[in-house]
Amino acid sequence: MSAEAIKFNWSCKHTWKRSAKNTGWCLLGCAIGDLGTILFFQITKIPFPVLGIMTLAIINGLITSIILETIILLRQNLDFSKAFKTALGMSFISMLSMEIAMNVTDVILTGGAILNWWVVPIMLIAGFLTPWPYNYWRLKKYNIACH
């Protein structure tokens, strides 16, 4: 282990709180597109392969998260181009890991592309916990956040 890794501070309560807030906003954006896509196929009963639904859910989750984060940054007086690039660039690893965690959880627990009262909270918890340490690290090391 490098000396830099040993010195890194994982115990800053302020950073954990701020990174939790950032992760929560990301989760909201991802969940809108992801769960909305799964719900659409569940309600309409359009015959489509589970893997196809899950792939669309991930893509739509990424899109809605980028849109939400861009709006948040616009409200902080960034111009559109800078807000969009920031939302896309700074959070993509976090969003992607969040989406994969949510959808793998759904597949493991239900077989995939099925929403019910008990699976959604578990999906959201998995989606939150997976990128949270990365968001903490990025915020602590580089002071970079999306919100």
Give the topology string: H per helix, E per strand. Answer: HHHHHH
Note the beta-strand portion.
under 5%
Helix content: over 70%
What is the mean predicted local confidence, pLDDT? 91
Task: Specify the biggest β-sheet.
Answer: none
Number of domains: 1
State the distance separating the first and last CA atoms: 32 Å
State the total count of DSSP E strands.
0
Could you please describe the fold and organization of this structure?
- With 147 residues, the protein is mainly α.
- It has one domain (16-142).
- Helix content is 78%, strand content 0%.
- The chain is built from 6 helices and no strands.
- Helix 2 (13-44) crosses helix 4.
